[in-house]
Design brief:
heterooctamer, A alpha/beta, B alpha/beta, C alpha+beta, D alpha/beta, B: alpha/beta, Rossmann fold, 5-stranded mixed β-sheet, 12 helices, 17 strands, about 20% strand, C: alpha+beta, Alpha-Beta Plaits, two-stranded antiparallel sheet, two-stranded antiparallel ribbon, 4 strands, about 15% helix, binds thiamine diphosphate, binds iron/sulfur cluster, binds magnesium ion
């Protein structure tokens, strides 16, 4: 059984975290630390880079290299880091808002360039840090602090977007599915090129409250029931699909990454 | 080895950067800085460095900051509209104390303005583009040689002070071709950023200060680095403590403002105790100097002060050198942005005549001459 | 027969009750202050789901018991 | 004694102003002169008007751009508009060299000594209009500018590799010849 | 036969344009003016908004309302215009760089929101205005002024991107295919919601020169030969596909547009 | 009708905007301006206006500019990092002469700093964030009432001058709840932008000037509008002509700088001919006034000047009102940005004492009191 | 004559500081007082320390924030750290009202007159800890602040619609009662 | 029989020769200055492709001839 090894990646002395009770960020942090431990990643060759947001504070509790830049730009910063330090394993852990609103362009271009980064998006369907406004990933019609009568904009599927743009690896899971989450973060860490792990996560303080999902337990149960394996999902009829979301591995390929591209052109 | 070459200002900046040790360039094309982007795309691979054309200027300065934190000397080049976009991340670099160089080739603005034409109207924007209190360094070359020399200096200062340094060039200087003495790396005094040497355990990225500047590790090195744009403790972990905030923000100013003697001093030409002094910078200083030489050869007693460090504004030096003047002419192709700084030095506005031009053309020697003669009559 | 030890650190626990509700063996109840209470440790299979789901590093499961 | 030569080449985009200016500057540089060269830039260069300014001097060059040229080469009509203020003033001290087919000076306004040559057509004959400025360089070198023709040839060769270089040198030499025979 | 009506949309007195001989921008401008004329669009209810670039100067030669903002942001500006003036027909004519590099985020979000805009992208595979650097849409490995030994980054298909993001209408054509181009601009003008017409366009001055395609005639012939109807393309084998690009209509649907969404939520 | 309500500063700005006629809001949430975004999302539909949450701040100000050109009074709200991102488009609005209002709620910087905490350190960034020469208007409220009043004024001035107007609020003012007299639209003097009235044919968007401000059409109106960030002719078509450039850029400054008497004048409290004058703005002015009242009640002779228009800096008024003072205390929660402006007015640095605080907390009356007493002893 | 009352409520995030502050301010406003209310904000509010400050005055309020409170209500232990500089100084003029179960003053350091009440537990009894501040408002209204209890009740009702309002009023009234019987 | 009239405006023409090369009926040749020359107007079908492809508004095709 894995031991306490994961704690070498966690700044235990800085806990408790600033997060609300039940928030998914801590669960993701633990899964990440466990994945690091199982892969025995050297902390000095491991970088956790974060966006700005509640999820962005994950880096306040780690012991490896840590970068925390400006809202939405993490992938652009890390593109620079990776070009000069290709040996670093870089994990960019971003919020849904950070990644898909202000950071949309960098997200698409990092995937297109296939930069060797594991991008973990903590998708709590809203801007937790600023008080629960909708994000581009919030489903249509949901209630948030800036959509009191329902979000009037369609969402977009960032997994499909990453796939289209050129990512090597794309996986979606939820905070409920902890074991799967840890395992696929590990799988992503083993890949070269751009990987996306989207983790749908509860925000009990805003999202669950505004949408009357109930407490954190109810929201986790909702994740458990609504997110079904992609294979199952694909066999559903369209009408049925509307009630579910898929989770699982969308993409797994081995296209050359940015570093390889740039070196190739040197002949 | 020192070699002589005919180069444009933009090319000189690029070779200087390479020779100063820059091995990373990220940028987004923009007139009149584009040639720097293009030349870097050719040279960086040759020098085993990295060139990347990012999706915009925000991403460009971000990649530069990232590369710098990875240990590379890194830079970008842009012009007005791109500079504006970079301002948030320039503020970040100031806060997180990341060395980096931004070459800002001024063009005619505001907004898209006239992309191919000349202006010196970014003097304030380079200093104040990013919100919050912090200091930063801005240098302005006046010739192609100076573009080379001050670019080298920009890298040195940015490593020494761990701060963004902006080189304030312009559309005219960028494209004029002049002789440059290229001192190659062996000839140059290059400042290498200080690296932590103590034990790896318990290392605090912002914990050891030399001259108020932290001795920081790089990402991927064995001393674990933590960087954030939030107010942070010595550990690099975030904090919202009032005292930590005040100490940090005041140090960001102090670490530069208290060491101004290390920054390129203004050049003074002509009569030291002159009644009439021309203050200028950049290519306008060349027109000014020609005019001053002309009047002096006709028996005037005029002096000429060429600013090389624009920010922090070299108040002490300027006061010292200009205090005797009865009249000071401030020659600049903008609304009078440097003239304002002289007022801030305590020179009374009546003493300060602005020789300004805002029509997208360079200020010529005869225009300065005219102003000088008016003042003397 | 005890298969695992479960420990809760009240300094870190934020009383979210996730461990309580999602333990497949209903090992936990809730005490009067709202903290999880390890009530049926004998049922514990050592699956560590409670550990994995605790957002606050407040819960540890030790599965390789010495005795 | 004259120690500074300020030359402006003016014509249209496709006539190689920038290249010629650079070549002149390189040749001057080889010969130990101080030099500064500039050219119109950007969108403007695509259009009708293109210019290049070259200062050659045995002294330090303070201001690197040209307020008023000593030598002004004009290869298309439109350029006259731009230089009217100089050419029309009395005692301007500017020598005008123009293409006699495509850029004859507008009547009655020019107060400069002026000299017409078959620049563009000569270039077309040998290579193409793109080389027009090379012909002009020949003329300038022969008659006004203190440069060694071998230096100019070398600068041309270094700028245009291989065959194009030779053709451009040919144009330059034709310029020298035109000047030689010119009834000055 | 259509008459000179199109001239009422063209600032004839401002011609000749600043564009290089043979440049595709003028062809697109004419097609657009013809489409306007055939639809008899009132100039005071018609807006041409441009990005910054050679293509962005199209608006310097029109007579309807004209907007020219900052590089990459046109769609965001026009989102504001369209919300307050839904009756205006807005055409955003953008360069490939403007739209897919600095403007990527606004492009994705405008398509996602399905803002009622006809977006025409003049894709000349480079940044013409600044001297021929590669853009995100330039094909892999091409020579440009910042990729002298071949572009070391993959490109992305903006048609597929617009489709994924939520556009109602997506069509790709080339400057060679003038009749098709005009007709499908017309079709796009008849739609509600976000339409994309991508027009692959020659840049004889930079792109064709750097890539040794030859003169403008050769480049137009290249467009003629390489861009085949999507139906044909889809039936090709993968190996064959590598030598061709598709053109034609990818998307045509009638999802509600942003204006409808925002009004719906008002009940 | 005038009604009284207890409101926070952020809420007061929002209601003021609506009552001033704003019917378009585009924004991106950011602490401490978020409540304005949220309240707009609720109110705009009620008033048949538009609310849109854009993908970032660049897009937000872009949408605002677009909406304004469509004829709507439009605004956004942000804080430091977002302001930096907006700067390119603020420059565009200045160049293209698009009325719009930006509420900048200052927080502790630089960079992400401390998002929830207080500072007054954006004084220079609001003015100089965008490259190139142009003027713009910045107003700073000191109370919730003032937040209401000056927001209304911001819209009026932006329509009157066709220029971006920035309201410089802060994290403390944004969240304090105070009584406000809400004058509703009927009670307010609202300035409506001038619209062209002449013939449609041959209309030149930048061709008719009133007080140097062009009488411009809106998109969708029958007078065809042409707008560009390039230097442009009266027709709105682009130009790279030197003379047109100079005339345009100088007019952009002149149209504001020459009409400063139309901008909110500073308030003066206390003894007019005082030896000791406190200059301040925003919430620091409240602490200052309390301190000044206290010392005056103890027999001092102190005066207090509250700036309300920050940019263009009201030099004339400040000189007039402070010229008699032996000592001027400039109270501000930053490194001394307004103090610099007083130096530019010609007050000698020795006369100017900065009472500054940079620890993310507000300046309190007792801190000002202490400084006042030190000066008097 | 006292004409200004500066009150700070201090406790943890879940005890309704902000709401209570707002209610007090609203009640004062109804009664014609000038008032200014502030509260801790943002991430901090999620954590352990939450505060709200209310100034009630019959005069103009110049500075709207509180440097030193006249009345300080403390509902959790952590708050003492924050107010130590005030409470520990002599002649601070601050009255301390504390929760006697959860926030007894630390020994030997407090130089303020201090009064303990069963605030939190009383709220829990009736509704939940969230209403703790309502009990505190009752105590303040009865003993120190010149507000009419009907105004406070009304402000509560306007803040919490329906049943929750009534329960909160109940808490407020329990606070009034606790104060009534307090051996002051 | 003439089906259409074709007119070239030399003030606008930039001599790109697109009209010349892509006329399906080879109506144009190139004159000594590089401008398109309408040489075989009789072959013209009035398809207007030259008009549509001219980037510079330099070429007009009139198809509804009066006579
Ligand atoms: C340029 C800029 N704009 C806005 C903000 C304010 N801001 C901070 S976090 C955030 C969004 C957070 O949402 P998300 O990325 O989903 O992270 P979460 O808090 O939900 O984990 C915003 C808008 C900022 N810090 N910088
Ligand atoms: C913020 C900013 N960055 C860079 C530029 C410089 N710039 C002008 S046009 C352009 C790209 C043009 O490429 P594209 O959009 O493809 O248009 P094209 O010229 O090819 O038609 C660039 C980078 C600018 N104007 N503003
Ligand atoms: S606001 Fe939501 S996302 Fe943020 S810490 Fe609280 S629960 Fe988590
Ligand atoms: S280890 Fe498994 S069975 Fe044991 S307490 Fe935890 S969740 Fe329950
Ligand atoms: S999951 Fe963790 S934080 Fe939540 S109640 Fe259990 S031990 Fe406490
Ligand atoms: S550079 Fe290319 S895109 Fe620009 S005008 Fe010339 S041919 Fe057209
Ligand atoms: S109309 Fe058709 S056939 Fe006639 S000239 Fe033009 S392209 Fe040729
Ligand atoms: S296509 Fe037009 S511009 Fe080109 S040659 Fe023909 S007429 Fe001239
Ligand atoms: Mg989120
Ligand atoms: Mg392009």
């Amino acid at each position: 059984m894995p031991s306490d090894d994961y704690k070498q990646y966690v700044a235990m002395d800085r806990l408790p975290s600033i997060w609300c009770p039940g928030c998914g960020n801590g669960v993701a942090l633990k899964a990440l630390a466990l994945a690091f431990a199982e892969l025995e990643m050297p902390p000095d060759k491991t970088l956790l880079a974060n966006g700005i947001g509640c999820s962005g504070r994950v880096g306040d509790y780690v012991r490896c290299h840590r970068f925390h830049g400006t809202h939405g730009r993490t992938l652009a910063f890390v593109t620079g880091i990776k070009l000069v330090r290709p040996e670093i394993k870089a994990v960019c852990l971003l919020g849904d808002g950070d990644c898909s609103a202000i950071g949309m362009s960098h997200f698409v271009h990092s995937a297109r360039r296939n930069v060797d980064i594991v991008t973990i998006v903590i998708n709590n369907y809203n801007y937790g840090m600023t008080g629960g406004q909708f994000s581009p990933l919030s489903p249509y019609n949901v209630i948030t602090s800036t959509s009191r009568s329902g979000k009037a904009e369609p969402d977009i599927d960032i997994c499909k977007l990453a796939d289209l743009a050129g990512a090597n690896y794309v996986f979606r899971t939820t905070i409920y599915h902890v074991v799967e989450m840890k395992n696929y973060i590990k799988e992503a860490l083993g890949k070269k090129g751009f990987s996306l792990v989207e983790i749908v996560s509860p925000c009990p303080t805003y999202y669950a409250r505004y949408n009357k999902i109930g407490n954190i337990i109810k929201q986790l149960e909702w994740l458990k029931d609504k997110f079904i394996p992609i294979e199952e999902y694909n066999q559903m009829k369209d009408a049925e699909k509307e009630n579910f979301f898929w989770r699982g591995r969308l993409t797994n390929r081995d296209l050359p990454d940015l570093y390889q591209h740039t070196r190739r052109s040197r002949g | 080895m020192t070699i002589k070459k005919l180069l444009t200002g933009n090319d000189a900046c690029t070779y200087a950067a390479i020779n100063a040790g820059a091995r990373f360039f990220a940028g987004y094309p923009i007139t009149p800085a584009t040639e720097i982007v293009e030349l870097c795309s050719e040279l960086m691979p040759v020098y085993n460095g990295n060139f990347i054309q990012m999706e915009d200027e925000i991403a460009s300065i971000a990649a530069v900051i990232g590369a710098s934190l990875g240990g590379a000397k890194a830079f970008t080049a842009t012009s007005g509209p791109g500079l504006a976009l970079m301002s948030e991340n320039i503020g970040f670099a100031a806060m997180a104390e990341v060395p980096c160089v931004i070459i800002n080739v001024q063009r005619y603005g505001p907004s898209t303005g006239i992309a191919t034409k000349f202006s010196q109207s970014d003097v304030m924007a380079v200093r104040w583009g990013s919100p919050g209190d912090h200091s930063l360094i801005v240098l302005a070359p006046s010739s192609v040689q100076d573009s080379y020399d001050l670019t080298v200096e920009a890298f040195n200062l940015s490593e020494r002070f761990r701060t963004p340094v902006i080189l304030l060039s312009d559309a005219a200087l960028a494209h004029v071709r002049e002789k440059v003495e290229i001192r190659e790396p062996g000839e140059l005094n290059l400042y290498q950023r200080e690296k932590p040497s103590g034990p790896v355990n318990g290392y605090l990225p912002y914990g050891t200060l030399h001259n108020n500047v932290p001795v920081m590790s790089n990402f991927g090195d064995e001393h674990i680095l933590r960087v954030t744009g939030l107010v942070h403790q010595e550990s690099g972990y975030s904090s919202d403590n009032s005292q930590i905030a005040e100490e940090l923000v005041q140090r960001l100013a102090r670490k530069i403002d208290n060491y101004q003697e290390e920054l390129p001093a203004p050049f003074f030409y002509g009569r030291q105790a002159a009644d009439l002094i021309v203050v200028s910078f950049g290519i306008s200083a060349r027109a000014s100097l020609e005019a001053v030489n002309t009047v002096n050869s006709e028996g005037f007693k005029a002096g000429m002060l060429e600013l090389r460090t624009i920010w922090p504004f070299p108040r002490k030096k300027v006061k010292e050198l200009c205090s005797g003047a009865k009249k000071i002419l401030v020659v600049e192709a903008n609304h009078g942005q440097v003239r304002e700084q002289l007022i801030s030095c305590g020179f009374p506005p009546e003493k300060l005549r602005g020789v300004n031009k805002q029509n997208a053309e360079v200020i010529t020697p005869s225009e300065v001459l005219l102003a000088l003669k008016e003042e003397n009559s | 027969m005890k298969k695992a030890n479960v420990a809760i650190n009240k300094d870190l626990c934020k009383k979210c009750a996730i461990c309580v509700h999602f333990c497949p063996k209903e090992v936990f109840t809730i005490d009067q202050d709202g903290y999880p209470l390890i009530s049926r440790l004998d049922k514990c299979t050592g699956c560590r789901l409670c550990f994995l789901r605790c957002p606050d590093f407040a819960l540890e499961v030790e599965t390789e018991l010495d005795d | 004694m004259k120690n500074t030569w300020r030359t402006i080449l003016s014509g249209s985009g496709g006539q190689g102003m920038g290249m010629a200016g650079k070549i002149l500057a390189e040749a001057a540089f080889m010969q130990g002169f101080n030099t500064a060269q500039s050219q119109t830039y950007g969108a403007g260069a695509r259009g009708d008007l293109s210019q290049s300014g070259i200062i050659i001097s045995s002294e330090d060059i303070l201001f690197p751009l040209i307020e008023k040229p000593d030598l002004l080469v004009i290869l298309n009509n439109k350029s006259y508009g731009h230089f009217a203020p100089i050419l029309n003033s009395n005692c301007n001290g500017t020598i005008l060299i123009y293409d006699q087919d495509y850029a004859p000076p507008p009547k009655g306004k020019i107060n400069s000594p002026s000299f017409g040559f078959t620049v563009v057509n000569k270039a077309r004959e040998i290579l193409s209009e793109k080389a027009a400025c090379m012909v002009a360089l020949g003329i300038l070198t022969r008659l006004w500018i203190p440069l060694d023709k071998t230096n100019v040839s070398q600068a041309i060769q270094e700028t245009f590799p291989g065959k194009t270089g030779l053709q451009n040198i040919k144009c330059f030499e034709e310029g020298l010849k035109l000047a030689e025979n010119y009834p000055l």
